[in-house]
Amino acid sequence: QVQLVESGGGLVQAGDSLRLSCAASGRAFSNFAMGWFRQAPGKEREFVAAITRDAETTYYADSVKGRFTISKDNAKNTVYLQMNTLKPEDTAVYYCAQRRSSGRSSYYYLPREYGYWGQGSQVTVSS
After folding, report:
1. What pLDDT does 33 receive?
2. How far apart are CA 86 and CA 78, in angstroms?
3. Long-range CB contact pairs, 48-55, < 8 A, 24+
4. Band of pLDDT at residue 42, cut at 50, 70 and 90
5. Quick one: pLDDT band at residue 105, thresholds 50, 70, 90?
6. CB 64 within 8 A of CB 70
7. Apex CA 22: angle with CA 16 and CA 28, to 5°?
8. Among 39, 45, 38, 108, which residue's Cα sits nearest to residue 72?
9. How many other C-beta atoms can be found within 10 angstroms of the C-beta atom of residue 43?
């Protein structure tokens, strides 16, 4: 059974940084791409970032490009989201997710590509 456990959220001021972590268990972590999504109150879940299973390629939403960095440590079964220069509009519940299958994809930004989700971690950025 796959489990994804997130940590690292909190309340910060605009311009601050946070790092989210997501520890995975249940199947071979190195075989699967990982993603981060977020959902603000009253809005749909949206793509934030994704990383391929070998950690060689990353993808970002335009809204976070240049400020957020996704990384994957296959030895620790953990994916990270480093968030810098946070803005109030980054306020949301952040979810890590693991792809359903181990093959390549052109659709890392789609929630349907992911079969397993963490419980979510609240990030609140005050102005």
Report:
1. 96
2. 22
3. 48/81, 48/94, 49/81, 50/108, 50/109, 51/79, 52/104, 53/99, 53/102, 54/30
4. very high
5. confident
6. no
7. 150
8. 108
9. 9
